[in-house]
Structures are given as C-alpha cells and as structure tokens.
Amino acid sequence: MTGAAPRIGIVGSGIAGLRAAQSVLTCETGARITVFGDEAHRTYSRPGLTKKRYPPSADLRAAITEDLRVKGAETSALDWHLGTRVEAADLRGRVLHLSTGGTFAYDGLVVASGVRPRTAARDDEECASHAHRTLRGLDDAHSIHQELHRRAVVTIAGAGFVACELASLAKEYGCDVVMLEAMRHGPFENILGEDVARALGRWVTANGVTLLTGEAAKELLCDRSGRRSGGGHSASPPGAASERPLFIEAIGSVPNVEWLDGNGLDLSDGVRVDEYMRVLGCEGVFAAGDIARYPDPWGTERLTRMEFWKNAIDTGNIAGKALASSLGYGSKMTRIAYFPSMATEVFGLRIQIAGNPRNADSMEIVRGDLERLGDGVLVTYLQESAIVGAAYLDKGAQFNRLYIELLKSLKTR
C-alpha cells in the first residue's frame, strides 16, 4: 500500500483494543493508531479487580492501580484519547463522532467497546434503602474495596464469576455476605449446569455466605425504587447504622453497541462478525473482545459471544492482524480457532473451565464427588458422546495431570 500512513481507530481501551493495536503495529503498517476509552485509565488487568484484599492503611487507589498494570499499555506508539466516548459512527463515511464534539476519520476501525453491568433500574436512579453499586472498571473497584472495609453487611445480586469473587473478597474483609440468585439454583449454572451449581452453592454456604435462590432471592431483590421485587418496601436490618446497606448488582452485562446504531448492523447481542473478526457488510471494520459475536469454533452453525480475558486477548490479536491484512500488510489472516479457557478462585476453591460446556447435552463426573469439592472434582461435558468441555474444581492439584490430558480430547468443529 502506498501514500499516507493509514489512520486506525480503536474504540475501547481494554485488553482487546490494546492487543488489536499491538497486532497492527507488529505488521509494520506505519499506521497512526488512536485508542478511544471511556475510562481515564490505560489498559489494566480487569480480572484482578476482585482478586486481592488490601489492608485498611493502604492507599487503595494507588495500590490497586499499580497491581493491575498491563505490560505494553504505557507504549508511546499509540495516541490515547482517554475519558472520551465515541457517541456515534458513520461506518459508510468512516467517521466517528466524539463526546468532545469533534470527529475522527479513519481508514480502519476496531470495535472493542466491551460491555457494561446490567442493573435493575436506570443508573441515575437512587435507592433510599441501599447503596447500589456495580463492578466493571477500576474506579468501581476503588470504591467497592473502600466500602467493604467499613461495611458490616453486603448483599450481592447474582451468582456468576464477579458475584462469587466479590462474595469471597467480602468475607476476607470481614463482611456478612448475602447472595441472591433468583433465576438459577446456584453459582455458574449457566455454564456448568445444575448439579455443579448446587454443589458450588453448598461450597459458598459452608464458607459463611447466606445464599438464597429462586423465590427466596426474589423477595430480597431491590429495583432501586425502595420496593423489593417480591413486594413491600426494603428495610435496613435491625441495628444497622444510618448508612444505607451495600447492595452490589452482578446480574450480567449489556454490550455497548448503541453508538453503532443506524449502520444496518446486527446488534442483537453485541456485534456480529465472521471468523476473522470482520464486521459483516462493513469494509475495514472489525470487532474484538466481549462485544464480538462470532461463529463458535466449538459448535456447529451457531454464534457465540464470550466475556473472558483470554477471549479478549485472542480476538484482539485476530482483529488486528485482519485489519492490517485488509490494508495490504502482514501475513495471511488467521481465523478464530482458539482454545477457550477460564479460571477463578472462590473461597480457596480453584475453578478451571475449558472448551464450551454450554454446548453439551450431558455431563460426566470423571473423578471425585460433588459432595466434596475441596478434594477435587473433574467433570466432562459431552455433545453426542464427544467431549466439548471440561471443568476442574479443587483446592489442590491432584487431578491436574488428568485434566490436561482431557483437554486434548476436546472436540472442535
């Protein structure tokens, strides 16, 4: 390609956006790359927001920020526009409209605007009974860690990764913790199934959490109007301080796609792309990370959207290489064929998941007993007798070798 250096826009300063930018740079395009981010921070390790307890004397803001630094984010090769929202996009005209009132014209674009927490009401609604919080960004973490130091009780709505990690963290801070899961039987049920979810429910309960599910949970959910979902008004527990009790909502996420309205895209669940992260019907536009909905490498003729750190890294790399290739640089594009994996720790129990258990029609306990998770449990997930997913739960690593061997059996399409 000849002429002026291509101008690349990346909407989203998370790890997917950073990896896309780095991939473009490695292709020696000579591109001028501008990264737009809602937050005032460069890329940081989002999974670390709930991983560590900090002492009360620590400068929390500085300590958390330092712990979550990501290698490569301090590069001067990128033009960072932080605290700047992209309000709208004209993909046909290749122009972004910014919250500053300005515009940005591009030759190539990566959509990596991610997701935001789902809430029970509009974000600007204030609750008279609770201090409602969500956790998505670094500033949220600063606030929540500070509040967990001084609160005696915390209620957490949800039972997914963020909710369970927060429950574990809150107990470390000495809080009494109530978890509410109105839609399912226990933690991680939408990924690992009902049997494992019930076992994880017993695990968190044994570690001092009050876990309420179904109708019992609905009775205590709060929609910020001061009225519980089950009827009646919310009230502070007996003996509570005048300060409103902490209520953290971790009930899922909403893709940040509104700024793409009016471009004829499929935005029904994130941004639809092909296996090269190309946004369908838009030349020079790619998507990566939590927002990208792509053909599932672990399923037949279905699309998937995953909100995990490794997924953001892998799809960011693919999007960046595909963008460079579309401009005439770099090697042949690489299609999505990564190995899905994720891990967390809840009350000392390490949970590792590989493949895509959601695609399974049955499960099998390979080792261990769901009644004794701490002694190790290895589970496989099958679709028509072929292994499509695996989960390993253990306080140690006694089945780790067998788990690694099982991963070699996972079926791709």
Q: Please give the number of β-strands.
A: 23
How far is the N terminus from the C terminus?
36 Å
- How many helices? The count is 9
Radius of gyration: 22 Å
Give me the secondary-structure category: alpha/beta
- Show unreliable segments: 229-242
Q: Biggest sheet: strands side by side, in what order? A: 3-2-1-7-16
Largest sheet: 5 strands, parallel
Beta-strand fraction estimate: 25-35%
The overall pLDDT, averaged over residues, is 90
What's this, in brief?
The chain has 413 residues and is of the alpha/beta class.
Can you walk me through this structure?
The protein is of the alpha/beta class. It has nine helices and 23 strands. The chain has helices spanning 15-26, 60-67, 138-150, 161-172, 189-192, 194-206, 214-218, 309-326, 400-407; strands spanning 7-11, 32-37, 78-82, 86-90, 95-98, 103-105, 108-111, 115-117, 131-133, 153-157, 176-181, 210-213, 246-249, 253-255, 271-272, 285-287, 292-295, 303-304, 341-346, 349-355, 362-367, 377-383, 386-394. Strands 3-2-1-7-16 form a five-stranded parallel sheet, covered by helices on one side. A hairpin with a 4-residue loop joins β5 (95-98) and β6. α1 packs parallel to α8 (309-326) and α2 (60-67) crosses α3 (138-150). The longest helix has 18 residues, at 309-326. It starts with 6 loop residues before the first strand and ends in a 6-residue tail after the last helix. The relative contact order is 0.14. The model is unreliable at 229-242 (pLDDT under 50).
